[in-house]
Structure of NADP-dependent oxidoreductase domain-containing protein:
Amino acid sequence: MDLTFKLNTGFDIPLVGFGTYQIHGQQLIYDVLDYALGAGYRHIDTAIVYRNEEFIGQALKTLLPKYNLKREDIFITSKFMSQKNKEQKEVEEAIRESLAKLQTSYLDLYLIHWPGVSGLQVTDKENEKYRKAGWNALCQLKSDGLLRSIGVSNYMVEWHPYYYQPELLEFCREKSIFLQAYSSLGSSNTSELRSDETVVALAKRLNKSSAQVLLRWAVQQNIGILPKARSRAHVEENAALDFEIPEKDMLLLNNLRETVGHKFAWDPARVV
């Protein structure tokens, strides 16, 4: 896979990344990353709250040489969740701990995980204070060369045909902001989106799975995706996106917002 997007920092980010949310345990992390690197993934996404950074670091130490890769051949993203009473220096320490666990001297992308703050209600005005402390820490460590690019996560970027936001995409393109999808396949609690009759019919016509159609729909708009999977078959399937969805079918998927449209995840707009 060589689909990339040039960030406004000048670095290229692979559009297709491997998500590791809810994937735990040393052996399982090793196995899924083995499958992922073998399938061509070169972007690995994690976060402090996933509690798997250390296992990822250990796995990559073995797996990169296995695939004749160097650290600079892969793109690693992690995230920090702002916390009550955590000032800038404490955030910087937490990020440095991420680096140590991942056994790397730099991270390609580091994000504030959520606009709210752990330990505060979403309506608490102190959210802004600790969110700013987190952002200042990211800016400082980017200046120090430990973080190549920085950004935010879960800030209004749920993105799938049921929650298509062309206005957001236009804004991001105008501002040279990379848009990465959240909930590309809907919710893990329901197959509603993957079972949608329009999606299923299109998948059948293209001889692809519903998941592949939904992922390709995003990638075809230059939007990043982070599918996660545990089995080799699903890891490889999610990476096999070298096909085109005809424009008329892209429009059919876009129009699902009008006929079905709804969110699957939380609403970050509630956070002050």
Summary: Residues 11-260 form a domain with the TIM Barrel fold (CATH 3.20.20.100). The mean pLDDT is 95. Residues 164 and 257 are 6 Å apart (CA to CA).
